[in-house]
């Protein structure tokens, strides 16, 4: 599901736009998953998000790594983005291993979010 190429994800010249899937792909997948998961609301209420973010080596197009994440209630999709960026910085500065960051984001990103607030 995920890559472990630190040279790539920590390279300041690299950005997620190089591997981000197209909007047509993610929009179609989001609608399909919303139906499958029985999610209420409109597609705009959700971000088709990577469980393991691209900046943490997550697979860009694997449906198992993508899911419709709600913006509300908060903390939601926007706050998880903050966690992804925080963990990416920590990985690239060497204060956390990539595998540990990936496990943290998958198992309980909210716990990391709360730690960031302290």
Describe the structure in brief:
With 118 residues, this protein is mainly α. It has 4 helices and 2 strands; from the N terminus they run H-H-E-E-H-H.
Helix content: 40-55%
> What is the number of helical segments per DSSP (H or I, 4+ residues)?
4
The SS-based structural class is mainly alpha
Residue windows where pLDDT falls under 50 for at least 5 positions: none
Strand order of the largest sheet: 1-2
Shape, per Cα inertia axes: globular
Average predicted confidence as pLDDT: 94
Give me the oligomer status: single chain
Along the chain, the helix and strand elements come as HHEEHH
Observed structural traits:
mainly alpha, 2 strands, 8% strand
Task: Note down, in words, how this protein is organized.
Helix 3 packs across helix 4 (98-117). This protein has a two-stranded antiparallel ribbon with strand order 1-2. It is built from 4 helices and 2 strands. Helices cover 47% and strands 8% of the residues. It has 118 residues and is mainly alpha-helical.
Structural topology:
Blueprint (H helix, E strand, L loop, with lengths): L5 H4 L13 H15 L8 E5 L15 E5 L6 H17 L4 H20 L1
Antiparallel strand pairs: 1-2
């Amino acid at each position: 599901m995920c890559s472990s190429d630190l040279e790539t994800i920590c390279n300041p010249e690299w950005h997620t736009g190089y591997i981000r899937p197209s909007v047509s792909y993610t929009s179609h997948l989001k609608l399909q998953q919303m139906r499958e998961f029985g999610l209420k609301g409109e597609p705009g209420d959700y971000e088709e998000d990577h469980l393991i973010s691209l900046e943490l080596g997550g697979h860009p197009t694997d449906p198992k790594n993508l899911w419709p994440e709600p913006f509300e209630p908060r903390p939601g999709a926007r706050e998880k983005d903050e966690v992804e960026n925080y963990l990416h910085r920590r990985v690239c500065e060497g204060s956390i291993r990539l595998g540990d960051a990936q496990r943290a984001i998958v198992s309980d990103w909210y716990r990391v979010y709360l730690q960031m607030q302290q």
